[in-house]
Amino acid sequence: MIIKSKEFFLPVLGYSGLTLCLFFYMNHRIQPDMAWLMIAAKRLAAGGTMSTDFYETNPPLSVLFYIIPALTSEYLSFLPPYLSPLLFSVILYFMSVASVAFLVRQMRLFETGFRRYCVYCYAAALIIIPLLCFGQRDHVVAMALLPFMLVQWSLTQRIVLNSWLKWPVLIIGSIVILLKPPCGLVPVLMLADRFYRQRRFSIVFDPDVLALASALSLYLVAIFIFFPDFISNILPDDLVLYIMIRLQSVAMLTGTLVFLSAGLGLLLWSMPADSTEPWAGVFILTALLCLVSYYVQGKGFYYHLVPFLIFSSMAMAFVFYQFAASFYGRGDWKTELFSFIAFVVCLFGLTRPPLTLLTHADFQNSVLVKTIQNKCGPDCSFFMFNDALEIFAPVSLYAKREFGSRFSVYWFLPGILQEQNSLTKNPDDKELSANLKKHREKYTQIVAEDFKRYKPQLILIGDCTIYNTADHHCIVSFAEFFSTNREFRRQWSHYKREDIIKVPWKRYFDASIKDGPEAENYTFTVYRRKS
Prior knowledge:
Blueprint: H1 2-7, H2 9-27, H3 32-45, H4 61-64, H5 67-75, H6 84-106, H7 112-128, H8 137-156, H9 163-177, H10 185-198, H11 207-226, H12 228-242, H13 248-270, H14 277-297, H15 306-328, H16 333-351, H17 360-364, H18 367-375, E1 381-385, H19 392-399, E2 402-403, H20 412-425, H21 430-454, E3 458-462, E4 466-467, E5 474-476, H22 478-482, H23 486-492, E6 495-504, E7 521-529
Parallel strand pairs: 1-2, 1-3
Antiparallel strand pairs: 3-7, 4-5, 6-7
């Protein structure tokens, strides 16, 4: 009984910490990507199309995935639209952790103490590593991968699982993995391992292959039938103007992380071999395959690294356990407790979460939200622009006003400016000149159509609207750039300059910075529609 009471420390510590972290995330303001996908999902549910109502660079599944929280918020009036996707993410989190706990128990992986330790480490990694990106698509993919891998391993080892657990994991996992297709390399490698072990071609009829193939087939059919404009209208420009814009630092960081992963692998290999060693290698290999997704996207965003960090941290958890076991022995409650504490401390040390956060209430009381609510009635729309347009989707949800644009960000601008710079260096390049003219005419026309359609009553234009992607220096104003379009000039003539407001801009991007002398003021010029 004494040992059992001591073993109670780990569950109490784990559940208490996870509850505090979840409260932290639920109280933190919604991420711009999640806010925009909520808006896009609502427009889709209302009968909108992908090119006229939401112009999204990501494939349609990114929007379809948020249909559930969007409709939930629509029909449950007491649930604010900025809280619905966060709640949805928390539910997915518990489903993932519960699935892993049930699977490792049914499969009898490891001894009881180490099994329990692994589940708590997984739960901690899923909730600490994402930081303020909790619930982003990359994070959701990471939640789905490990349960999916465990079911695949059970099929490889011919371990019988309950159908009520196996099929939901396979179906949900197959759908979620399509959010980030490069992460599909993980189940493909698991299939290759099964083929090598079992030497049979009939694996193509195994449940995981059927689930993946069915999800992919249905998704492709849905795109061609319901989202043909994505293929014909958005994807060609996406490939030229968005995907090709990459940060040079991504390749360097990717190489560094591969090197560190190799070092972690060597460290694990040098430790005493036991039944956990193969799984440590699996986690490192999975992390490296997830790193492919980060490299392919090439934008350098932290949340693109979340799957890599989660799986590499699980390999690191093995190191902590092995080290503690050398003092207390395997299966001892002190080994579980102290290795788990060391693991959590290490995660917090690596991620360094902010001590303060921008809450929902902070955002609702912010200068931007209050300005829009005071100057724009409940049924009017607004438009905002500067060199970081993505912040305005959360503003729309908190202000409860329609955002008058089909874009979350003007992602086409860096590509057009790059074409413009290249043409300056190569003025005789006729193909480049034709592409620049085509792209500029197309997107100035789309922006003009948005102004005509939404007729925003209020426009806020930042003092740095269009910038050079190389040095972030402003090169042209919003009105000047788009006034090459006749319809835009006509729409712009309906607005008069009314006011200038200053906002502590950093607080909208760094949750640890509140209004105060350390906050950088950013100027917005306010325009109101005359007619």
